[in-house]
FAD-binding oxidoreductase (Bradyrhizobium jicamae), 458 residues
Amino acid sequence: MIDTFKTLLGDAGVLTEPDDVAPYATDWKHTVRGAPACVLRPRNTADVAAVMRIAHERRIVIVPQGGNTGLAAGAVPDASGSQVVLSLSRMKAIQNVDPVGMTIEAEAGCILKTAQDAAADVGRLLPISLAAEGSAQIGGVVSTNAGGINVLRYGMARQLVLGLEVVQADGTVINGLRSLRKDNAGYDWKQLFIGSEGTLGIVTAAVLRLMPRPKLVVTSLLAVADPAAALRLLKLMQDELGETINAFELISGLSVKLVEEQFGQRAPLAGNGWFVLIEASANLGGLREAFENVLSRALEQAIATDGVIAESQTQAAQLWAIRERITEAELKAGRSVKHDVSVPIPALPAFLADAEASVSSGFPGARINAFGHAGDGNMHFNVLVSVDTDSAALNRSVYDLVAIHGGSISAEHGIGSYRVAELAHYRAGAELSIARLLKRSLDPKGILNSGKILGMEK
Ligand code: 2HG
Ligand code: ZN
């Protein structure tokens, strides 16, 4: 098998040495350690198609991998030694950036930050933004339907994909790299490949929507007593500032403390409850004044207890650094069990209170590192635990409450291999049946990222 792939991709296109393969074998959190037979590094779509033809003929499981920044272990192989990682990293060209049509076309391996910069160079905004944007790749962003901090205003990756090129399980290439805003000519098949984590096909390139680049940006950190106050603040902000709000991030006191402990970076305001990081942007003047007015009202009405507005881009970056360092601070702090959940926005305070009560009583000593994109109902309800904590029991205690509050066990990180059992438990019935029907039709031999999302097909 290795020789066949070497003939196809050349020596540089096939990694087999343990040191070379190691980074592709484990996820960002190093929770899962797989054993790939080898790592393939195609140069273009034709290479990917040729790899899939061979894999299809010989029933080789292919695990597509982008920047490997995911938090659900969806891009790493299992430990069998037979799965092959397909890294898209060498396919990183930006094919086109169009400031009039407001689109960008890029290959799957293009780093998200590189694509953002290319859009900025022509005065446009690629609004997908996440802490891992310096390593995450477009193919991974699309195939996991990534979220991030701007979902409130611009939606998830799905809302920004106009066109897609996909290689199917048998090597067939579907070229749908259209940049049309309106295209109702038949089924919108590309939606199947967005968010299906490489289990239905391999995304090799995408056309994404761009937005006008806002000239005015206001970034502000506020202290609030609790999540209910945060939602009152959200309502007030939306009433007064409308769609200018890009991000509305709710951060627990413990999250801020972890960043301080691990990185020595302090929040520039006092607070003994929760914090909210808000970013608003616009092209027309008056945004700063409007924001200051609404902040004063929030303080007067005791919705917020304190607040600062960044005076410069550097200060804004410092405020964002507090938010973006939470994940690394958590990793440094020891073992944690992550829950990337969403509930209907009004249910957030009750869910957080119930989940905190349930975890505190069931798992004494556990500390809750809750933070997230409250403006779209998505919280990262992560729990710092000791080495002997039963994570399955902990998951159950959180996810049961997610279900009671009408939420989802994965808001933006996907199912990957972490949450396969939970998906089967919390999404029973017709929803799983249609998922299996799609999987069997598009990947009848079960060679695309097998074991992820639906588990191993029996
Ligand atoms: C974020 O919002 C990411 O920063 C990571 O989705 C969340 O570490 C996490 O659980
Ligand atoms: Zn997030």
In short: The chain has a mean pLDDT of 97. Residues 227-241 form the longest helix (15 residues). The pocket of (2R)-2-hydroxypentanedioic acid (ligand 1) is lined by residues 71, 131, 327, 338, 340, 372, 380, 382 (CB under 6 Å). The radius of gyration is 22 Å.
